[in-house]
Automatic annotation (TrEMBL), chains A, B:
This is Antibiotic biosynthesis monooxygenase. Keywords: Monooxygenase, Oxidoreductase. Gene3D superfamilies: 3.30.70.100. InterPro entries: Dimeric_a/b-barrel, Jasmonate_Hydroxylase-like. It is an enzyme of class 1 (oxidoreductase). Its EC number is 1.14.-.-. One of its GO terms (molecular function) is monooxygenase activity.
């Protein structure tokens, strides 16, 4: 088994309020901005009734820096006032991982 | 800050193959079965282009037991042969969490 380089996942689970209210534009801008941050690794997102976005970072410091980013703080405040009826954030350390790729497995 | 009782998240990120092929029925059955397992805490799922499902467990042992569950193994095999073109599984330890509820915050 390969040794896993330590990294972290931030699981952001949420339910939206009704209507867009500028959400889609801000969400796209925040993803673009997150991808430019030091320590950013990857971002995955999906939504149907529930929204789940997971961002991956190489340290807890990188996560703290992103949370404190001024543009991101504006978005976080709009998130609470306008966009989300509920959310939960979980900061996690990835302990192990494995991957399946259908084409490679044949 | 409250002390967090240690628990774990399994992040299952995936892309589907084309067509249902019995997937929806099996996914529902597996969620029902997972919820009955010892150590199960919660399950969250969302899909648009990407599927992200996160299950939460109270120990690594509970996660290992669920992975080894015979009915779940049948589903895992069908997942590789029929349902998923790609997936990645990350087993994570939740280090901290916080929650927002719009109604409670007013």
């Amino acid at each position: 088994m390969e040794l896993l380089k330590q990294y972290y996942a931030v699981i952001f689970t949420n339910t939206r309020t009704v209507g867009d209210n500028g959400y889609a534009e801000m969400a796209a801008a925040m993803e673009t901005l997150a991808r430019k941050q030091k320590g950013f690794i990857d971002f995955e997102t999906a939504r149907d009734q529930l929204g789940i976005s997971v961002s991956y970072w190489d340290s807890l410091e990188a996560i703290a820096n992103w949370k404190a980013n001024l543009d991101h703080q504006v978005a976080q405040n709009k998130g609470m006032s306008d966009w989300y009826s509920w959310y939960k954030v979980r900061v996690c350390r990835v302990e192990r991982e494995y991957e399946f790729n259908h084409r490679k497995s044949k």
